Structure formats: C-alpha cells, structure tokens
C-alpha cells in the first residue's frame, strides 16, 4: 500500500460498529513506528495535546499550521499504515481556510483527520452548528479535489459544556455526517446508557475517547462503537513509566526490564 488514497480508503473501512478501530495515539516518528509494529495495529492517530506538549506549546492550536503539517508529514512518512491526524479546528478562521489547510494535510500524507466544533477548549464556547458543518464540508471538498477518500472524524464537543442538551449534540453529529464526515467523535459518553443512546441516535459510525474510568473496551464493541482512541492518555502512560523508571534508577534500584527495549 503506497498511495494516500489507498490508505484513506482502508482507514474509512475500518470504522465498523461492533468491531471498532482501536487507535493508540502517537506524537512523533518513533512512537508511530513502535505502535505500528504492535500486533494487530491497523492504523494510527495523532493527539494534538501530545504533539503540542512535545513542541512546548499549549493545546488548542498552540501549534502553528506549519508545525502541525510537518509533524503529520514525519509521522505518515515513518509508517506504512494509515495515519489520522488530530487537526484541531483546521488552523483557519473560515471554511475556505480549512479547505486549503486540509489540502496541505493530504499532501503531507494524512489518510484521515479529526476536526473539532469548539472555538477554544472542549468545555468552552462552540461554533454554530451550521458553521461547524460547513468546515466539515470544506474538508470533504479538499479531499475530493485531491482524489483521496479522507476519513473525517468530526468531533462533537457540546455535551462537555451542555450535558443536558442531548438533542443539540445529536443534531450536530448528524449535520456533520451529512456534510461529509466518515464518523462522529462524541465527547463525554461516560456510561453504557449514553454510549448505547449515541449509537442509536447518530446516523453513522460513532467514535469515543477512553481512559480507565470509561466503559470497558469489549463492552464498547458490544454496544456498537466504531472507533476508540485515547488522546493524550498515551503520552501520560509513557511519561508515567519514564518517571517511575527514573526514580528507580536514581535510587540505585533494579534495572527496569524496559530499559532493554529495542526500537
């Protein structure tokens, strides 16, 4: 598999309700290679939070668009499997800018992307639904222009700040699918009941983010989720292991087995 179009088609096909795509988030070339070599891994996804912290800047477009594109190019070029890029809000003030930037992202080798509907953080103000949908549509037009069936994972942030407005969240989700999203990434589905409800009310594949407090992975599959990611949690996992190892070594303790890991 060599073309971005082939990788994008594969990535889109892996969003199967009940047999979810599991993407362990990465942030640079070496983490991409290590995760890609793990048994069963079919695709990768970046996490903007992790990429931003590696660059020493805050999340929520602390990165420049050039930094985001260069990171995407490095990661996509490091592996042979599809890479979905967390492209935050598209790094542009309007839909035309999103279209131009997504075209550049595809040139960098991305097979898919995440795009958010919040204006700042997930708990902050939101774009109007029509505006957010127009940005998803702009990303799809860029993909069509390039001849690449980009897997667009459109994020719905509204339940974070307005957990009681289920109808509004579902309206957003289905607008984004109508605008060309491949899947909808719904934040804040902490219970089995909410997961089941989202799968029922969204007219397409549903993606979620998971952590140790989430519905177990096997149960998410049983409920019909199509994609699971872990966001910055994988960076935290890596740093926690590193910190513990540093404390053990500093205390003249045993060598951690992972110190001999070959990458």
From TrEMBL:
Keyword Lyase applies: yes
UniProt cross-references to SUPFAM superfamilies, sorted A to Z: Phosphoenolpyruvate/pyruvate domain (SSF51621)
Identification of the protein by name: Isocitrate lyase/phosphoenolpyruvate mutase family protein
UniProt keyword annotations, A-Z: Lyase, Pyruvate
InterPro entries registered for this protein in UniProt: ICL/PEPM, Pyrv/PenolPyrv_kinase-like_dom, Pyrv_kinase-like_dom_sf
Keyword Cytoplasm: no
Molecular function (Gene Ontology), one example: lyase activity
